[in-house]
């Protein structure tokens, strides 16, 4: 139960950070947000935030992602040191009517979480009934091409340590 609360709080914190990144401050220097920061993978410019969508396929079921929130320029990691080089989050609803959330982040080599982090929650993230799957520290699980984050056949482990899930995704930021 404590793990679910911590994950729920972490998801809420990431969503808040992403939403804050989407807002503008008229007095701030918006050069990075304007898309002149090089992308970590695939070249091109990296816009700061989106409002797009995308798709994900979780264990064979395709889910339309109605909304995408992204920050595609490096930011200091709040925990673990190093930087979060890019992050994105998408939400949708599966065929059973359950909320589906995918959370993607790439941490710098200096971070204790170095590499790719992919997590998927099916159901209300604050309930005990939600199914949670994750991969932390993977290499090459998330590819960034311009303002698109994608991955193919990413293997994740459930909270119980025994269940697994496979996800493919494309998030258009």
What does this entry look like structurally?
This protein has 173 residues and is mainly β. It is 12% helix and 45% strand. The protein has 1 helix and 10 strands, in the order H-E-E-E-E-E-E-E-E-E-E. It has an 8-stranded antiparallel β-barrel with strand order 1-2-4-5-6-7-9-10. Strand 3 (75-76) and strand 4 (83-93) form a beta hairpin. The N and C termini lie far apart (32 Å).
Please describe the structure with a list of short key phrases separated by commas or semicolons.
eight-stranded antiparallel beta barrel; 45% strand; mainly beta; 173 residues; disordered N terminus; globular; single chain
What is the N-to-C order of secondary-structure elements (H for helix, E for strand)?
A: HEEEEEEEEEE
Mean pLDDT, to the nearest integer, reads: 78
Question: How is the biggest beta sheet arranged?
Answer: 8 strands, antiparallel, barrel
Which overall shape is indicated by the principal axes computed on the Cα atoms? globular
What is the element layout, followed by pairings?
Elements: H1 2-22, E1 54-58, E2 61-71, E3 75-76, E4 83-93, E5 99-107, E6 115-122, E7 131-138, E8 143-145, E9 148-158, E10 164-172
Antiparallel strand pairs: 1-2, 1-10, 2-4, 3-4, 4-5, 5-6, 6-7, 7-9, 8-9, 9-10
What is the structure about, briefly put?
The chain is mainly beta. The chain has one helix at residues 2-22; strands at residues 54-58, 61-71, 75-76, 83-93, 99-107, 115-122, 131-138, 143-145, 148-158, 164-172.
């Amino acid at each position: 139960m404590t793990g679910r609360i911590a994950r729920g709080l972490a998801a809420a914190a990431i969503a808040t950070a992403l939403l804050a990144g989407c807002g503008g401050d008229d007095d701030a220097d918006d050069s990075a947000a304007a898309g002149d920061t090089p992308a970590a993978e695939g070249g091109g410019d990296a816009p700061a935030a989106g409002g797009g969508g995308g798709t994900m396929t979780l264990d064979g079921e395709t889910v339309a992602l109605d909304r995408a929130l992204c920050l595609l320029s490096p930011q200091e990691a709040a925990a673990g040191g190093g930087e979060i080089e890019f992050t994105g989050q998408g939400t949708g609803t599966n065929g059973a009517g359950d909320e589906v959330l995918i959370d993607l982040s790439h941490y710098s080599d200096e971070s204790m979480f170095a590499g790719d982090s992919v997590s998927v929650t099916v159901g209300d993230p604050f309930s005990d009934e939600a199914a949670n799957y994750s991969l932390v520290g993977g290499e090459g699980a998330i590819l960034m091409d311009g303002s698109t984050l994608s991955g193919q056949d990413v293997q994740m482990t459930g909270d119980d340590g025994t269940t697994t899930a496979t996800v493919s995704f494309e998030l258009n930021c």
